[in-house]
Amino acid sequence: MQYNGRGGIRYELEENPFAQGGEGKIFNVVGRPDLVAKVYKSTVNIDEREGKLNIMVSYPPDKSVLSQIAWPVDVLYAGGAFAGFVMPKVKINEDLNVIYEYGATAKYPNIPWSYKITIAKNLCAVLNAVHTAGHTCGDLNPKNISVDTATGQIVFVDTDSYHIVDGAETYRCNVGIPEYLPAEIQRKMKVGLSAAPLPTFNQSTDNFALAIHIFQLLMNGVHPFSCAVLPSRKSVVFPQPSENILNGSFPFMQNAEGVTIPKFAPPIDILPEEIQKLFYAAFVDGREEPGLRPAPEDWFHALTKLEQRLKKCKAVPHHEYFGGLKTCPWCAADKNFETGMSAPLAQTALPKSLTPVAYAPSVGTYAPKKRFFADFRDALRGEFNPKIYALLLLIFPLAIVYGIVKGRGRVRRWNLVFFVAVLLTAIIWPVVARGKRDPLIRYAAVGTREDLTALNGANGKYKLTNDIDLGGETWTPIENFAGVLDGNGFEIAGLTVSGNVKNAGLFATLQGEVHNLKLTAVSITATGDAGTAGALCGTNEGTIDRVTASGTIDTPFFSNVGGLVGVSKNGNVGGCASNVAVTGYEYVGGIVGYLSLYNNAAVDGNVNNGAVSGAGSYVGGIAGRVQN
Questions:
Q1: Nearest-angstrom CA–CA distance, 75 and 97
Q2: Distance CA 252, CA 216 (A)
Q3: Within 13 Å of residue 471, how many CA atoms lie on the same side as its CB?
Q4: pLDDT by residue (tens digit) across 610-624?
Q5: Cβ atoms of 547 and 522 closer than 8 Å
Q6: What's the Cα-to-Cα distance from 179 to each of 190, 287, 471, rounded to whole Å?
Q7: Which of 118, 179, 309, 560 could be bridged to 593 by S-S, CB 3.0 to 4.6 A?
Q8: What gap in Å lies between CA 275 and CA 256, rounded to an integer?
Q9: Pick from 349, 299, 361: which is nearest to 114 by CA?
Q10: How many helices and strands in the chain, by DSSP H and E?
């Protein structure tokens, strides 16, 4: 059987299909072992499907994920009439729901948690690529996702049912399983998805389904909206997950009368707080505001952090759990379910999770330099410091012994004065400084754009108390900052610097310290024929550690351009990560454009994942030029 593609390419299909479903038959393509073809049955709405597939062929996801999604690569015609489409030949293994099975009857009862995290990260990577291409999946039920149990790779199938929008034209996804659809879609399903008023599916509904899959992968296969009736309330009707979704009842984080979580489900507090908050945003906050549901990249970042903090159970070798816990939650879950797991299956070593879209990499291993004298300075200011206090307690008995030996058994007057001073300090200092132990008291809070602007010329201690969205409005770089800014793990989003600016970045010049801060959606397009630019600062003369940045810096006429720092003069930069696309003229680097290593400056443990380009000389992945 011969068919023609859109560009006149001829495809010869084998005579007999190797698979078929309700809508069509699947054939191998002669001479193309990398492709298969789906030919539709006459019952399919040909006109609607032809329009959808032409859009999908024209606007595919990033090519790096095409091995993990059966995306159309060409449309088939027979005698000028639309017939079907061609797609990559992907390896179909187990449906994702098989991985969710629990207990003695499960096909894969002993899959390690790290394996499931790998699957979850790959789900995020592929869905992110689909969304970046401007599309929506719609029906993301586990039957439409295949898992390779040897590698952790996944494959999205049945993509021709996706929800595709082309301007004013919407090619609907007309199918869906209620257990993976948010309330706003379920309410419209009463008249059928094909007749439901638009809009129906969108990327936030995909994000809802993604959160359910991640929950099931992390929580023993339990659906987040499943529940169990309390023994004392046997008369209570047992609600199904789809009913709980519709009614807004998330039993793992919301109290519901007469019901609790299933007995083989661990409590949600076995997860890091960051992941708990993401689930709350997906299932509680997102019910009223669907846009609040975490996107794939949000989950990807959080799962990467979890992946780096896993413990192995001493009692059951294949049990892995969050390193912040004292005991293994899976042992407790097994006990609650009153069943033991058999010996672990032999697992093929897993590759690193595929990351077709360059997410911000994990923070490096840089350790900031010791701050003994800074600790002493804080102690003299009255701030309680356990290290200095321990040193004080050590000096006290040594001073007594020295005084007795020096005085030949007698205590001299100056010894007595010293003893009393040290003793009073040891007693009074912790009491006086008690109110200064809380870092939120020691550090001034920064929570708004105005708070950031007020850092200009400051030299105190400051701490972010929440994420700050600069909203893409033009930012005037803080001229100079000589204090300490603790990002506290929060992010500053939408930093935008444009126009004639000489030192472009959050700060123009940094002479102090910045720690544990995220910069996202950075856009620097400063103009002029000379200048420095970096997401954090144009010029660094201080200390920077555990800072990450993502976005773009496009300053083609600037020298000294870096993903984080334009010029670092005798400053320390470490444990940082950049996913900033950087363009400059010369001295262009992924982390630092121009780096001076005088006066014991250090650059260590940094990671760059962004593209770097420059028309002149000295262009590098980490630093454009290093001067010793």
A1: 31
A2: 12
A3: 4
A4: 999 988 888 999 999
A5: no
A6: 15, 15, 36
A7: 560
A8: 22
A9: 349
A10: 15, 40
